[in-house]
Amino acid sequence: MAHSIRANAVAAPVETMKSAEEKKTSTKSVCIITGASSGLGLATTKALVDSGEFHVVMACRDFLKAEKAAKSVGLPKGSYTVMHLDLASLESVRQFVKNFRSSGMPLDALVCNAAVYFPTAKEPTYSAEGFELSVATNHLGHFLLARLLLEDLEKSESKSKRLIIVGSITGNTNTLAGNVPPKANLGDCRGLSGGLNGVTSSPMIDGGAFDGAKAYKDSKVCNMLTMQEFHRRYHEKTGITFSSLYPGCIATTGLFRSHIPLFRALFPPFQKYITKGFVSEEESGKRLAQVVQDSSLSKSGVYWSWNNDSSSFENVLSEEASDEAKAKKVWELSEKLVGLA
Length: 341
Known about the structure:
The structure is a single chain. By secondary structure, this protein is of the alpha/beta class. It is about 45% helix and about 10% strand. Strands 3-2-1-4-5-6-7-8 form an eight-stranded mixed sheet, with helices on both faces. A hairpin with a 5-residue loop joins strand 7 and strand 8. Its EC number is 1.3.1.33. GO terms for molecular function: protochlorophyllide reductase activity.
């Protein structure tokens, strides 16, 4: 008898804690943001939390870094939850989904934002499953995450449930920036089909020689194709809004951390004064937060961009980034690689 009383005494506080956590988030929508511990992800987290409408799940590789980042921008305790996610490991993606589900939180928006970029790498690096790292992280990890969480999003009671994949102007070859070599090009996807492992296939999607900057751009084309394929397959069925965006060039972001020092020193002023494409992290975060919650940006299948006066418009994607046959091919090959087919 004494034993069962003790068990109850231990269980009670946990119960109270859980209901407090649920109360905190129950009136708010819940948004998962990958790569939320720095740059655009952190700025968006702050914008959503500041709106008072969202509880943000910061899905990050480095737990401590995310906690420190949240404190550094003054996020109130209880306005966010940090959960571990390493997009370069499919096992980690699956574990994250399990952890998220066991939290009991609903899911109203998913923002696939995290990205790695290795522009100066001479040799490829590989993910846990042996895929070239930038496509593994930026595309395949997000592809699996979004596919698994689709059913959670579908259950959302929000009038505006959304899945957003951050694009890039560099993968869009009908823009000036997209034409800076090496240009994105997926070719016939023979490298993707072979598993991007650098052993039995090329580490590059098009089967060519490794190029770190091109691998990043290619991964961004995959992101944009994936968003459109999600829209075609699931929008009508689920009512979920699928969108992509280019929030502007955030030249100060840590994405450039592996670039050569001279380029890093010159790039922000060049962007700011010569191309006028420069936006602050704060401004870009507000833009992405708009795509998450603004009712005027609820159209599905759209690639959003902003004018210099910060008004949003539907942008046109390059031929490759809007190629339906290629989108279907990338989708089907990706399904095989992440173990969904």
